[in-house]
Amino acid sequence: MKVIVGSPGAEKLKRRVSTTVVHIIPLVVALGVILPFGYVLLMSIQHVYYLHGDPRLWIPRIPTIDTYTYIITNTGMVRWMINSLIVAISVTAIGLFIYSAAGYAFYINRRNKYINGLFGLILFGIMVPKAVTMIPAFIIVREFHWTNTYFGLIVPPLAIPVGVFLIRQAMFSFPMDIVDSARIDGCSELGIFIRVVFPVLRPSLVVVGIYTFMEQWREFLWPLVVTTTQEMKTIPVGLSTFSSEFRTDWGIFMAGVMLAIIPGLVAFLLFQQQFIKGLTAGALKE
What we know:
Strand content: under 5%
CATH architecture: Orthogonal Bundle
Radius of gyration: 25 Å
Order of helices and strands: HHHHHHHHHHHHHHH
């Protein structure tokens, strides 16, 4: 059967091929994301005998949850999770207020060249690697005697310029008529920010909040530098102690990885609608 170019049959075949390609590409990407998680889950319930024999096995021959029981009862995993939660939630909560306030201030003063110059410095800070500022930050933390404390884990990460940039960009789709009406009614700038701006920016705040939470949850280098005791380690630093040059207990390590995934996954599932809305904020400028 021949298909004539330009005929209705050729157009129909072209649409079918396009539709198939559009569906196949996301499927391949999704599989590339899901397969590593599936491998980690299967390895975490694999019997230790088969793990050391052939860790490439996909289907557990003797499924067990002994690795989860062991890592919860015989290691500092629970303490590490508590530390990570305290740090991630504290940095997210405090940071959201700071980022939104700074983003709002930069937006309403965007026509001031000096304010724009200051904002340019913040953008420059996004390009500076963390390793460059780590030594000065550690010296400051040491002088304040914040090593092995929550202050040392929480305060330095609050200086994240990405949050200020995202909130400022989201303000371009903000209805400024509401702000003008609040000013006419006699509301102060602080009152406008807390009562008007903060609630309307909720989708964008969810995006910045999830980003900040995940950044702090998986942060490894700074907690490794600022903590030296087992009681103050976070999950990434704690999991690194399960691996060594000569022996790695893959079952326990994979179980710890699965437990570390849960909080971020739950946060995304709870706020996924606001997350998607926030990604489009700032797409239209006034």
